[in-house]
């Protein structure tokens, strides 16, 4: 049955792009709203499910039972168990980092957790919170952000949503609506841009973000790129600079869902313009740069998982500029995350109750 499913998907999705051809296959199935994915050094894949489970996928696509030791989450609205990342020195430390939503003192917040994957891969051990995105917000269960990425500088970066409370994105004493730069224990780094500014949280790296669910380092320039949901229109790709303000909600290319204006302008001195904007929206979630050998024509591209409308977007880049856009797999299924595998192939998480990990191969 699985072979037939692979064949049907491949036959139905054999798009020819301007530069390359590829085919799509089911790599792993049996997930409920998969959200985050991280490859281990041996090629196996950790996958989170928003209801609160994590599974380990073998190199052959075999999916484990839910791993014990995953922390409790609140899976309401857009919340739940969200991203997963493995430490750069995972081979020796076996450290795994999780991001999820949780209720604390009657309010919901984004939480960062550190744990260890047991040597046999069968469970998480010692899961403990290392950072809460405070202050707690009593209302709302949306806009948690929650992407984790490690940089070439050894720092850990975490994106946080503004929890649909727009003013939080501009507040220096509030961790919501930001990208944070952290040590492995969740503490602020001493050379962070606001570490010595009175009244500001020292963890902040950039501010003025709405709901950033995409983070990736450009392997050619070393810069951190971010994708975030706009309101009705105005989805953004940003190239992040230390201490920079990306404007939300003071500037935006989008409007409110009722059609009313949110901001008077789309640009303003002292605030960074996006590197790329979508009007209308594509609802961008996870992003990944491609530098593998399987698709030589795609090297240097940024791939963006789109939810609404369902699409995989490929952005060509030159340095830290976007030079073109190509839309792939349009209308196929909602995509939550995109990853490059150690085999140079591209892996996609589908945002479905019967979620899958898809794999793109040359074809």
From TrEMBL:
It holds the Pfam family GSDH. Gene3D superfamilies: TolB, C-terminal domain. Keywords: Signal. InterPro entries: 6-blade_b-propeller_TolB-like (IPR011042), Glc/Sorbosone_DH (IPR012938), Quinoprot_gluc/sorb_DH_b-prop (IPR011041). Residues 31-359 form the Glucose/Sorbosone dehydrogenase domain. Transmembrane segments: none annotated. The keyword Signal applies. Residues 1-18 form the signal peptide. This is PQQ-dependent sugar dehydrogenase. It comes from Siccirubricoccus soli.
